[in-house]
Design a protein that fits this description.
Elements (H helix, E strand, L loop, with lengths): L7 E4 L3 H13 L5 E4 L2 H13 L5 E5 L7 H11 L5 E5 L6 H9 L3 E4 L4 H20 L1 H25 L3 E2 H8 L4 H12 L3 E11 L8 E6 L8 E9 L5 E3 L22 E10 L5 E2 L3 E6 L5 E2 L5 E10 L3
Parallel strand pairs: 1-2, 1-3, 3-4, 4-5
Antiparallel strand pairs: 6-15, 7-15, 8-13, 9-10, 9-11, 11-12, 13-14
Length: 316
């Protein structure tokens, strides 16, 4: 089965490399090849091609004279998320900058100096994918429709089960971020079925970024969450401090003397916390956050704050 070869956009500031790539791609049967030597021109050219109903394969140089390649990548994927962007670089694949680009959606990595057999292998893989999707487009469409329906049903269930819920929470409960989630929320908002409450700032785990967290209150001495509120009595004479119920018949459990006058013999310490694990008492407890996804505990100073729109079902 033959398939129409895609357009190609080369983003490369080296004219010699650009010429070499064009000549080799022509041998591979790619006749619609465009090139730019800056990131800004690349974005404009890419938009023109998309407007002309073409989604080119992009060969993106890691080092550009005017823009960071990550910015070029993200702007290209904003225009067309399914674009296959191939990164060209002499920088090692384990470099943090390269790994970040891979996380942002790079399709493939070509190490410089570029080898012809590697280019051929990458483009053959793309052609095989295109042939597969062309042969199975009806089945793929059917599966995508089923997945979209499941996503919409899940979003509706989450909204009905919540007094209010953020987009971050919805995506994390579903398990992934998907454009269908946002489109469905916009439709529900337009139809008056939900109300957009604006941006909500949420505590997120600093390990896995989940916003499914809860506050945990602990004893400052032993870090146990097992404590209760009680009333303490301090006997001035012997210095004993213990819970009110230990002073049976108004007698100090330590020295046995009777306590008579408040403010003279003793003082009452209301609303203190008594730890059931270590028996220590305290007026203020420690506060931590527990991630319900990965069980990681972290303090307020370690919080990874995340913001997203918050929604609630509209009253009928």
């Amino acid at each position: 089965m033959t398939i129409h070869k895609a357009s190609v956009l080369i983003v490369e500031d080296s004219k010699s490399v650009t010429m070499m790539l064009k000549q080799f791609l022509k041998k591979l049967g790619y006749s619609d090849v465009h090139s730019t030597d800056t990131g800004n021109d690349a974005i404009q050219e890419f938009k023109k091609l998309v407007k002309a109903k073409k989604t080119p394969i992009v060969l993106l140089d890691f080092m550009l004279p005017d823009m960071d390649s990550r910015s070029v990548l993200t702007q290209i994927l904003d225009v067309q998320p399914k674009t296959r962007v191939i990164l060209e670089t002499a920088t090692d694949q384990q470099d943090e900058g390269v790994k970040e680009l891979i996380r942002h959606g790079i399709y493939q990595y070509l190490e410089k100096p570029i080898r012809f057999e590697k280019i051929k292998k990458v483009f053959e893989t793309i052609e095989k994918e295109d042939i597969f999707f062309s042969k199975n487009s009806a089945k793929i469409q059917e599966v995508e429709t089923e997945i979209k329906t499941q996503i919409i049903d899940r979003v509706n269930f989450i909204l009905k089960a919540s007094k209010q819920v953020s987009l971050n929470s919805i995506e994390q409960m579903i398990g992934f971020s998907d454009e269908n989630i946002r489109l469905h929320l916009k439709k529900l908002e337009r139809d008056g079925n939900i109300i957009n409450l604006g941006e909500k700032k949420e505590v997120a785990c600093n390990e896995c970024a989940s916003v499914n967290t809860t506050q945990v209150f602990t004893c400052p001495s032993c870090n146990s969450s097992d404590f209760h509120v009680g009333k303490l009595i301090e006997h001035y004479s012997c210095g004993n401090i213990s819970e009110e119920h230990t002073y049976e018949n108004d007698k100090c459990p330590d020295c046995g003397k009777e306590i008579k006058a408040l403010g003279v013999d003793y003082r009452a310490m209301n609303n203190h916390f008594i730890c059931n694990s270590c028996t220590n008492f305290f007026s203020e407890f420690n506060t931590e956050y527990l991630c319900l996804k990965c069980d990681h505990r972290f303090g307020l100073d370690e919080v990874n704050w995340q913001s997203s729109c918050c929604y609630k079902i509209a009253a009928k």
